[in-house]
Prior knowledge:
InterPro entries: Ribosomal_mS34 (IPR032053). GO terms for molecular function: structural constituent of ribosome. It comes from Linum tenue. By secondary structure, the chain is an alpha+beta fold. It folds into 2 domains: about 50 residues; about 70 residues. Strands 1, 2, 3, 4, 5 and 6 form a 6-stranded antiparallel sheet that branches. The radius of gyration is 38 Å and the shape is rod-shaped.
Amino acid sequence: MATxxxxxxxxxxxxxxxxxxxFKLLRNFSTSSNSTSAQTPPSTNTLSKKSKRRKKKNxxxxxxxxxxxxxxxxxxxxxxxxxxxxxxxxxLYKDGRHGKAWGITYKDGLPAAEAPKKISGVxxxxxxxxxxxxxxxxxxxxxxxxxxxxxxxxxxxxQAA
Length: 161
């Protein structure tokens, strides 16, 4: 009886070994054919990595790279044509990516309003910096004030007398 069990075990081992060997051959053939085709997909993978879109930025993510958080600079939504805001005030929340902003509306490069107003849609991801429009330099414009001209004129009269 023991010999019969030993014979059965050996015959079943032979069958298992044969099946393992045949599956091993199939696996080798399938991987060798896939290895040639596997060399081409990495190029398609690199194309898919390159085609990833760049995440658009909200107003605060654009303004953080400008000097003084973009105060005095012109920002606009990407789909706006000839309309922009000159940033006059920014109120940031603690995270630095959210908050409130105020600015003067510009249309075709000219101010459309005198007073700044609260900018709506500052958290939408479509803002861009407009480098073509210059920062308003109100401090650089020196117009003679009436007090200085009268003081100098009065000073001249005192010297003449």
